[in-house]
Amino acid sequence: MDNEKGVFASSSPAPSTSAQSPSKEHAVNPSGLLRQWNTRIESLAGFEARGMARVPDDERQAPSAMAMLQMLLLWFSANLTINNLAVGLLGPLVFSLGFRDSAMCAIVGIFLGAMSTAYMSTWGALSGNRTMVVLRYFFGYYPSKLTTLLNIILMVGYGTIDCIIGGQVLSAVSGGSMTIAVGVIVVAVMECLIASVGLKFFHIYERFAWLPQLIVLFVLVGSAGPNFNASLESSVTGAALAASRLSFLSLQL
Questions:
Q1: Does the structure show a pLDDT above 70 at 158?
Q2: Is 96 left (phi over 0), alpha (psi -120 to 50) or beta?
Q3: Which of 90, 151, 173, 243 has CA atoms 20 to 30 A from the CA of 224?
Q4: How far apart are CA 203 and CA 212, in angstroms?
């Protein structure tokens, strides 16, 4: 009994101490408040919260025909953009290539780039990690930071081109009533909203976004069709032609 009382007596102050400690930590630790605030926003708005965390096996989507179709529509919509059209125009405008050279380099470059990207995407399905995380296994922890930094720079440039060209398009279709600067801001705000709602709503958006994009692209091609010159030949020859072909093909990867 004495031993039991001793244990009871020595353990009796412990609950009061442990009961007071959370309140003290909560009072002096701002990260707890930020974490609660972040969790509340995620639950209300459905923002993307996973980040770079690995997707557990029990949360992965089972392979199916609908899942394959969803991925097809996702990447088709994501690449059916006007900035990719602007990259294709660099063949005759910058590298002095003709229609045939520009078309062949674009087709071969897009095919090679798509094949390599498709192969690398299989690593994510097997591991449950994002591609930037998988890089750690190939480059190591610190060297992979360099490739991640280069990818960030690439995405910033890609988004900047999207905003600028989108702003120019909005200014053109509005008859000049909307300035390019305002159009750039509108496109940037819309991109931020789409990127913030998470992958669930992003997949829903991309499932239908390809249709109006395709219609606009057909209208653009039909309007500019009379000005196309499919018989245009490359204005450079020899080593300069080979260099222009290789440079333009590398842009399409």
A1: yes
A2: left
A3: 243
A4: 16
